[in-house]
Design brief:
This protein is mostly helical. The protein has ten helices and no strands. The protein has two domains: 35 residues; 213 residues, MetI-like (MetI-like fold, Orthogonal Bundle).
Length: 260
């Protein structure tokens, strides 16, 4: 078996093995160590709650996923546009630096109730705004760095070949910046999901995984809360896999070696 094939198999087998070991340890703590269900509900209990509440979990999954997706897309677009302006003009970079630094340290637990109150008890816009803010920062920071990877020597070389601005951007700037942009989007996808969950946890319409986690924990239905937490984990994994597929697609479409 070739080395690339072995590496691909290892990337699949390793997470499965880690997951199986984690599940075995979880079952050991519940059945042998006798950890209280209040502290750690068992896998069977959570699975039973998942089956009993499958419809509600599925609906909450789509609501939270939609909020995170809206926030990710909006935050990514704004982040890339502003990063392009910042890379083009140092003055704009200086103007945005403190704004981005301030957004990066905004506490979601404090902002979520404010935005939920501003947009109303039946609106999802506050949650999407929080997800967008969380997604914006890593995309902006990584994109600015990526767009500045090209050196004056590289640009002078393209100019000596009479390359147009578009040819320079497509053949030099974009391939150099792509890995940084994709890294920012990958980080932002997880932050968007987490931020949407936290925003749902702290008020707003009683929909979404975060809201049901809060409600279940408040009524001491810990196994049910665990089922919603598992759904949130699945949502995070879906977001991660989607960004990995996006990266593979970009690698395929860009000039050879552009994202290495």
């Amino acid at each position: 078996m070739s080395a690339p094939a072995t590496e691909r198999i290892g990337k699949i087998v390793a997470p499965v093995v880690v997951g199986a070991l984690g599940l075995a340890l979880w079952q050991f703590l519940v059945t042998v160590v006798k950890v209280s269900p209040v502290l750690l509900p068992g896998p069977e209990q959570i699975w039973q709650e998942w089956q009993d509440n499958s419809t509600a979990i599925r609906e909450a999954f789509w609501i939270t996923g939609t909020n995170a997706l809206y926030g990710l897309v909006f935050g990514t677009v704004v982040g890339i546009v502003l990063a392009a302006l910042a890379a083009w003009a140092r003055l704009i970079d200086g103007m945005l630096a403190f704004v981005v630094a301030g957004l990066a340290v905004i506490p979601i637990v404090a902002l979520a109730p404010v935005l939920n109150s501003m947009y109303g008890a039946d609106s999802q816009y506050g949650r999407r705004a929080i997800a967008a803010i969380a997604a914006f920062v890593p995309v902006y920071v990584n994109t600015v760095r990526g767009l500045r990877q090209t050196t004056p020597q590289h640009r002078d070389l393209m100019h000596s070949y009479s390359a147009s601005p578009w040819q320079t951007f497509r053949s030099l700037t974009l391939p150099s910046a792509a890995p940084f942009i994709l890294t920012g989007i990958r980080v932002a996808s997880s932050l968007a999901v987490i931020s949407a969950l936290v925003a749902e946890y702290f008020g707003g319409p009683r929909k979404g995984l975060g809201s049901f986690i809060s409600t279940s924990a408040a009524t001491s239905a810990y196994a049910r809360a665990g089922a919603y937490v598992m759904a949130a984990i699945v949502l995070g994994l879906v977001a991660y896999v989607a960004t990995v597929l996006l990266e593979r697609l970009v690698q395929w479409r860009l000039p050879a070696g552009g994202t290495r």
